[in-house]
Amino acid sequence: MWNSKTTSPVSGVACGRSTDRRIHRFDSMSPSPFAERVDGLIRRAESVLGDRLRALPVNAARLAEAMHYAALGGGKRLRPLLVYASGEALDRPADELDAPAMAVELIHCYSLVHDDLPAMDDDDLRRGRPTVHLAFDEATAILAGDALQAMAFEVLTAVPDAEASRSMSRELARACGVVGMAGGQALDLQFEGCKPDRAAVEDMFMRKTGALIHAAVMMPTALRPDLAPSQRESLSRFATAIGLAFQIRDDLLEVEGDTEAIGKSSDSDASRQKASWPTLFGADAARERIEELSGQAAAALADVEGRTEGLTWLAGRLLNRRV
């Protein structure tokens, strides 16, 4: 549960310590020992995910094929990497983090399948390939998304520590529901053709995208019941800031990127009159907001004890990405 001292993924990010002090801004090009392990962690995440998908019953071949297509057809695996990096900061071994890493990626993949549907964003491309409802059909895409979501929670039931399993399931469920992705997508549809104010847009972004990023960072805390509340709060503030900044960066890429580079139609937001940050407030304001959020995230992470180099490097990737 969220408490009054912890930043909710659907609230603002103004709480926490001042960012006036000199702090390190995230730089994705800075050398990091974590960067040397990223490829191995991606392979690890894809291996456990692939093993799970290959175990699907053969009498559901078409549905299984669509799930494979959605989950194993590329992607940067940023959310599983956040799980591993957060767990590393909390001194948890990788094998304890495989389940939450797999679960959060399954939820992410399910959300992409459903977001691309004609009734939602109606996109033709995802990760440089036809979206699932075009590669298969709309009904199969809906069922594939449903099944990926169900599998995520099934995965978490295998976590040996029952309390940790419940805690992670609760965190992930909250990120999926009304105060998370589902609520954010509803607001996204509601705001089409409108001009919501900045607070409303940020609320939508924190639900639609930020909530799952927040969950990826926070789920490993369930494996550390002894963690001080102040440490959990600092991780929460960090995750909240980068989650919001990530979506603002995504909006910038929609405007400034090209279809081949970003793997989806670069004009999809404009064609549906989406509530896009650059469209509503300007590209320069978007970049300034990302920089402000970067400072808040760095200040929060500076208060986290442990090996935070992975979270630092990943924040740089999220906030400075070009694709």
Secondary structure blueprint with pairings:
Layout: H1 33-54, H2 61-71, H3 78-89, H4 94-115, E1 125-126, E2 129-130, H5 132-135, H6 138-156, H7 162-176, H8 181-190, H9 198-218, H10 229-256, H11 259-262, H12 268-271, H13 277-281, H14 283-302, H15 309-320
Antiparallel strand pairs: 1-2
Commentary on this structure:
- It is a single chain.
- This protein is an all-alpha fold and 323 residues long.
- The protein has one domain: Orthogonal Bundle (Farnesyl Diphosphate Synthase), CATH 1.10.600.10.
- It contains 15 helices and 2 strands.
- The chain has a two-stranded antiparallel ribbon.
- A hairpin with a 2-residue loop joins strand 1 and strand 2.
- Helix 7 runs antiparallel to helix 9.
- The protein is globular, with a radius of gyration of 19 Å.
- The N terminus is likely disordered.
- Keywords: Isoprene biosynthesis, Magnesium, Metal-binding, Transferase.
- Its cofactor is Mg(2+).
- InterPro entries: Isoprenoid_synthase_dom_sf, Polyprenyl_synt, Polyprenyl_synt_CS, Prenyl_diphosphate_synthase.
- This is Geranyl transferase.
- Belongs to the FPP/GGPP synthase family.
